[in-house]
């Protein structure tokens, strides 16, 4: 019997969200499984890659391998000329906010607009994969300003995956990227 061929898919994922919400920390947690005390402020942006293996009974069957190319803006999205490059050929975006900071949740609309204007395949019936990540969910519940239900509602309205993450504890981070990988496989 011939061994079944594993499918390998590559996809670019961009990290969006206000400065300080934890984008770099989420990337570090996902790639290296660490939470750095001191992490160089990303100035020109950062790039990482990580492969996720989906088991045969998950999306795509045959145990698809999904190699994610992750782009962290590090504020470079402020430079108009970088925006196009940043979104070029992206298959997915993760918009991050800080669950303890209302301002960063209000900015989610800004990021959704920027994404819709610059990414291809967004909108009705399109296959651009979008996620909304409420980071710092390790914080004391008293510090949490954005109710989970509110965030879920916004995510639903914009056809986004919703996740609560903590780059600090690691909670929800692997799961988030796995859901994105699955949705990318399904939507291709
Ligand atoms: P970025 O500007 O969006 O890339 O954010 P950073 O990754 O640089 O994180 C900003 C600050 O938030 C840093 O001081 C991090 O240590 C902190 N931080 C990031 N993720 C978490 C988290 O999940 N929980 C907590 N408590 N702090 C976090």
TrEMBL record:
Q: Which UniProt keywords apply?
A: Nucleotide-binding
Keyword set includes Nucleotide-binding: yes
Q: Which molecular-function annotation in GO is an example for this chain?
A: GTP binding
Asked if Repeat is a keyword of the record, the answer is no
Protein name, entry field: Uncharacterized protein
- Read off the lineage from the record: Eukaryota, Sar, Alveolata, Ciliophora, Intramacronucleata
Q: Which residues of the full protein are shown?
A: 51 to 238 of 251
């Amino acid at each position: 019997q011939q061994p079944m061929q594993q499918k390998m898919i590559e996809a670019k994922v961009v990290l969006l969200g206000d400065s300080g919400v934890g984008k770099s920390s989420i990337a570090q947690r996902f790639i290296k499984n660490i939470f750095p005390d001191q992490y160089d402020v990303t100035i020109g942006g950062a790039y990482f890659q990580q492969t996720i293996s989906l088991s045969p009974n998950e999306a795509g069957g045959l145990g698809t391998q999904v190699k994610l190319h992750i782009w962290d803006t590090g504020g470079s999205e402020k430079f108009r000329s970088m925006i196009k490059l940043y979104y070029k050929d992206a298959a997915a975006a993760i918009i991050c906010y800080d669950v303890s900071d209302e301002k960063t949740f209000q900015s989610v609309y800004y990021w959704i607009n920027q994404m819709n204007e610059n990414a291809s395949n967004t909108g009705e019936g399109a296959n651009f994969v979008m996620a909304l990540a409420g980071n710092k969910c390790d914080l004391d519940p008293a510090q949490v300003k954005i109710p989970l239900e509110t965030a879920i509602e916004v995510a639903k309205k914009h056809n986004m995956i919703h996740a609560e993450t903590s780059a600090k504890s690691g909670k929800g981070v692997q799961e988030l990227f796995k859901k994105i990988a699955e949705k990318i496989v399904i939507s291709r």
